[in-house]
Amino acid sequence: MQAESPTLADQAEDRLSEFREDFGGDGQFEVGIVKGVHAISDVCGIFFGPEATDDGLDTMLRHRLGEVVDHHGWRGALEEEVNGLYSELPIGGLFHDLHAYADYGVYAGVATDTEARRGRISEMIEQASEFLRLIPVDGWGLEDTQTVDIARKAIARWRLEQGDPITGPDLVLLSGKAEQTVRNELSKKKDGLAGNWKEVPASAALAWLETKSFLASIWQHQDDTELLEQVNEPLTDVCFVPIAMDGSMFHPGLKKDGVYLLGGEGRERAVEDFDEALSILATMDIPTWRRPTSGGIWTRVRGNTKEFRRIERKNLEAMAKADTS
User: Fold this and answer.
1) What distance in Å separates the CA atoms of residue 250 and residue 252, rounded to the nearest whole number?
2) Using CA atoms, how far apart are residues 223 and 165, in angstroms rounded to an integer?
3) What is the helix (H) or strand (E) element at residue 260, kind and residue range?
4) How far apart are CA 55 and CA 14, in angstroms?
5) How many whole angstroms separate alpha carbon 183 and alpha carbon 296?
6) Residues 6+ apart with CB under 8 A from 87
7) What is the pLDDT of residues 240-256, one digit of tens each?
8) Of 138, 140, 136, which Cα lies nearest the Cα of 42?
9) Cβ-based neighbours of 191, under 8 Å, separated by 6 or more
């Protein structure tokens, strides 16, 4: 008996899983974020002076990075925490979700229906467009960063979905092909790609991209019903767990060498029991714990001080099992 082909909803779930497993393995958009903050410092230094600028950035980043700013200042804190900025700063969460959309054609959050998901993606695209409009990419040395590539790629994908034309550089990003390859396709007089370097019709671009490694968008077919049902079901044997900026949470699978590592630099403590760890995190001004990146590096992550989520213990244990499998 032939196995059933996976549905588009199944494919979307597979892509999300692939994105989460590979996240951070093809470069770091956080590097561009750090460069941007340094450039902001340079501009503010001219307006307000270096000392006032450092005080201001220390204050702003202390809200997100806590004690590490007290130990290292804002510059050292960014260097120390670069691998975790996607979950610490609002712009990191934005680019995390833009990355999933730009490269995998899926939405990394949870939405009640397709229209709600469309609205959230539209908001992300507006923010990405504002980012590129407000920031002098060349002047700040961001032209070759993954940060800018993700923003441009996400905007280009969205334009295609709206039926709007894109540019040759957009096609280079979306296809992963060399610039000269795209230029050659556009210059062919027979069986070439319709359009020119400045404008390629959406229909022609999509038809050409289908023959490449480009993943067509399937966020429209994502199905979050099961997750939403879990949220709405009556809960038993619940825990209140801290939530990081990227939506991930503290769970029983985050032991390193048999212990949970809690707290900021200079105050970190090792705890064996999960419930004791939760109690300690609940008393912290900024809940802080260590978790592994996709590359196996144990970095600190800080919870949203305004959110502890109620979740059933059995679901936490399932998360732990998935993360350690």
Assistant:
1) 7
2) 29
3) strand 260-262
4) 45
5) 40
6) 93, 96, 244, 245, 246, 248, 301, 302
7) 899 887 778 899 999 99
8) 140
9) none
* Cα 111 → chain centroid: 16
**What is the pTM assigned to this prediction?**
0.78
Name 312's bridge partners. 238
Which contacts (CB < 8 Å, 24+ apart) does range 1-7 have?
7/221
Alpha carbons 57 and 72: distance in angstroms, whole number? 12
Q: How far is CA 130 from CA 22, 31, 37, 171, 236, in A?
A: 27, 19, 16, 21, 44
In angstroms, the CA 177 to CA 265 distance is: 44
Q: For tokens 């923003």, what's the residue?
A: 151
Q: Rounded distance, CA 11 to CA 277, Å?
A: 37
Question: Would you give the DSSP letter of residue 82?
Answer: G
How far is the C-alpha of 306 from the C-alpha of 98, rounded, in Å? 24
**Separation of alpha carbons 89 and 84, rounded Å:** 9
The HSE-up count of residue 270 (CA atoms within 13 Å, CB side) is 5
**Rg of the chain on CA atoms, in Å:** 22
DSSP-assigned beta bridge partners for residue 300: 290
Q: How far apart are CA 273 and CA 231, in angstroms?
A: 26
Give residue-wise pLDDT tens across range 100-126. 999 999 999 888 899 999 999 999 999
Place of tokens 């960014």: 78
The Cα 66–Cα 292 span in angstroms is: 20
One-letter amino acid at 118 equals: R
Tokens 């002047």 belong to residue: 139
pLDDT in tens, 152-204: 999 999 999 999 999 999 999 999 999 999 999 999 988 889 999 999 999 99
Listing DSSP states for 124-193 in one string gives: HHHHHHHHHHHS-TTTTT-TTSHHHHHHHHHHHHHHHHTT--B-HHHHHHHH---HHHHHHHHH-SSS--
269: number of Cβ within 10 Å: 11
The amino acid at 131: F
